């Protein structure tokens, strides 16, 4: 969630959010409203504003929403990450328009874990490249072995295998 982009300059968005942080219950501030500072919670709050939250359907939809800082191991193991092309910054904002990165803004308003998330993401990316190199080496060996095995097979059987994309 820390990589999300918001339209407008960073100062403008930060001031808007800091104005929101000032709001509290006059008699007893412990009663709320409670203001979140982590990017995932800020984004979830924004999505909540877009949903019919006070209906059963809206509450169920919000419950299904999962937002993370960085990329946890449980998500990386599931495979490819999907992106929504219509939500990309370059399709939504003109090139010359300024934008704010949510992680940077949250760091200014009190989110303390940006360095930790960066470190964990770097470790995850490094581990993924090691894993990819290892898998590529294994795939190359398999291709080599398959080629050697295909050389030993008769031409009729090879034609049948090629018909089913097995050779």
What can you tell me about this protein's structure?
With about 170 residues, the chain is mainly alpha-helical. The protein has helices at about 10-20, 40-50, 55-65, 75, 90, 100-110, 115-150, 155-165; strands at about 5, 100. A two-stranded antiparallel ribbon has the order 1-2. Helix 1 packs across helix 6. It starts with a strand and ends with a helix.
Task: Report a brief summary of the structure.
The chain is mainly α. 58% of the residues lie in helices and 4% in strands. The chain has a two-stranded antiparallel ribbon with strand order 1-2.
Q: What topology emerges from the helices and strands here?
A:
Layout: E1 5-7, H1 10-21, H2 39-50, H3 56-64, H4 73-76, H5 89-92, E2 99-101, H6 102-109, H7 114-152, H8 155-163
Antiparallel strand pairs: 1-2
Helix pairs in contact: 1-6
> What's the average pLDDT?
89
Unreliable runs:
none
Biggest sheet descriptor: 2 strands, antiparallel
Strand order of the largest sheet: 1-2
Structural classification:
mainly alpha
Overall 3D shape = elongated
Give the helix tally. Answer: 8
Secondary structure tally: strands: 2
Strand portion: under 5%
What Rg, in angstroms, do the CA atoms define? 25 Å
Q: Report how far the terminal alpha carbons are from each other.
A: 44 Å
SSE arrangement, N to C:
EHHHHHEHHH
Percent helix range:
55-70%
Features:
167 residues, mainly alpha, two-stranded antiparallel ribbon, elongated
